[in-house]
Each structure stands twice: as C-alpha cells, then as structure tokens.
Amino acid sequence: MAARHWRGLPFGNLSDCPNGSRWIMDVFNECAQDGRDVASIILGLGSIGCFIAAAFPQFYQACRTGIMDQALSIYFLLGWLGGDLLNLIGSFLADQLPLQVYTAIYYVLADLVMLSLYCYYRVKNRGRAFPAPINAAFVFLSVGSLCSLSLLGRASPEDPGTFRGRSLLSAPADELGPKPFSRTEIIGFTIGSISSVLYLCSRVPQICTNYKRKSTSGVSYSLFALVMLGNSLYGLSVLLKNPEPGQGQGDYILHHLPWLVGSLGVLTLDVVISFQFLAYRKGRPGTLEERDALLGEQEES
C-alpha cells in the first residue's frame, strides 16, 4: 500500500517512470523516483520480514510451557485470524503484487497453526470442548480461510485499477490525480475498515486475560515486539511514499486511512500489553492448571 503498482508497464520499462530506480522496477515492477520512494519500499520489506518472523517465538513458547490455552485469549486469536482473512481477501481483490498475496497467505496459515496449537492444549489440559459460539466462529473462519486460499488464482478482479487493501508495495489507483471511489474501491475500503476494527478489538481480550491472570507466562513477548516493529515500519512506509502526481496529501491519507489505523492504531494497545509484561514479569502463573503444569515440569527435571 505504500508504493505505486504500475501495472501497465512491462518489467524494466521506465518510460512512464522518469528517474526511477532500475533495480526496483526490475524486481518489484514499482516506480521509485526519489529517496522517499526507495525508503518506503525498504521499510515495507522490513515490515513483511517482521510479520513473517513474529509467529515463531509463540510457537516455541507454546511447546515449551504447554499452557497456551491459559496464556492466550481465544478471542484474541479469532480476531487476529478474522483480520488477516479480510486482509487476504482485500489483497486478492485489489490485485496486489504476488509478494503481498503470498505474505497475506502466510498470515492466515500462521494463524491457523496457532489456533490449532491452542485447541490442542485446550483439550490436553482441560479435557473439554469450546462453547458453541466459539466453535461456530472457528469453523466459519477456518472454512473461509480454506475457501479463500483455494480460490486464489481461479478468479480475477473486475477492475485492475482498484484500491490496494493492506498492500505494502502498491497504491490505490493507476490514474493520476484524485478521482471518485469505484465500486471495487469501495468494497476494498470497507474490507480494510472491518479488518482494522478486528485488529484493534483483538487486543482487548488479551489485555483482559493478562490482567485476570496477573501473569504473562506462556505468552511470547517477541510475538508482540515483532508485530509492533512490523506495524511501525508499515505505517512509516505508507507515510513516506510520495502521493500520485496531482494527488494531494490529504487525499492520499484518506485512501490509506483504514490500513494506517489498523497498523499504527494498534500500537497503543500493544504498548499496554508491553507494560503488562513488565508488571507481571516476576509474577507466578495465575491459575491452578498453570501452576500444576509448571510444577510437573520441575519435578520431571
């Protein structure tokens, strides 16, 4: 979303991108005419790397402690999956670069793995199923994820010059200057807004879970630290990018507002979670099941 996707140009063609970077055009088919554009793309790539690496520390922490079902809120995971699923749908509808679509697919797959680990430890530690509403939400999101993944590549967007969803390396339109939202742009804008709301709301259950437990045991801070860094780099990549020729800064911000809120807006809530890690860093697990699990580990050692 932070850079323009010059779809009409063949790779390496700088005829409509004077003074553009040759290597960026060859690798990404992107027009980067000055240092701001280049910095935007580099920050966008760094953001992608942070998001890709964010899930691995939590996978390790879950396997090490075995209390993931007490440490993470199921509503946090479901909200995150819902936001990433809408991100994937928006990315596909907006016809983004393959790198962005593949990254969005990774988000959804990582969420499904994390949810699977949660369900495994829930059954292992508590021996009971989820309430019906949570089961319904999980099934709906899982089926939606699988359907979205299976339909990728089998359909094409109606309008190639569309609003680009949660993209790091593409822009809302190919035409110059401000223009009214098309139908596809409105759909993309709406999907992006809902995705941002889900990203924001997903943090609240986790904050409440940490507060009730008075502990962050079983939760990897690296997960939130890397997500915070990725969202910061992402927001900066959007703000650094030069608007389209003839497009005002205000119009540019408006076109990207839902994704700026979804990235920079959640930083406030992630800071709250960071303070919880500091406040509870010496705290003991807050539930009987967690204490028994950790005591069992100590006895075995």
UniProtKB/TrEMBL annotation:
Any matching Pfam family: PQ-loop
Entry's localization field: Lysosome membrane
MF GO annotations: L-lysine transmembrane transporter activity
Repeat is among the record's keywords: yes
InterPro entries per record: LAAT-1, MFS_trans_sf, PQ-loop_rpt
Lineage top rank: taxon: Eukaryota
Membrane topology term: Multi-pass membrane protein
UniProt KW Cytoplasm keyword: no
Keywords: Amino-acid transport, Glycoprotein, Lysosome, Membrane, Repeat, Transmembrane, Transmembrane helix, Transport
Family: Belongs to the laat-1 family.
Protein name as annotated: Lysosomal amino acid transporter 1 homolog
Native source organism of the sequence: Origma solitaria
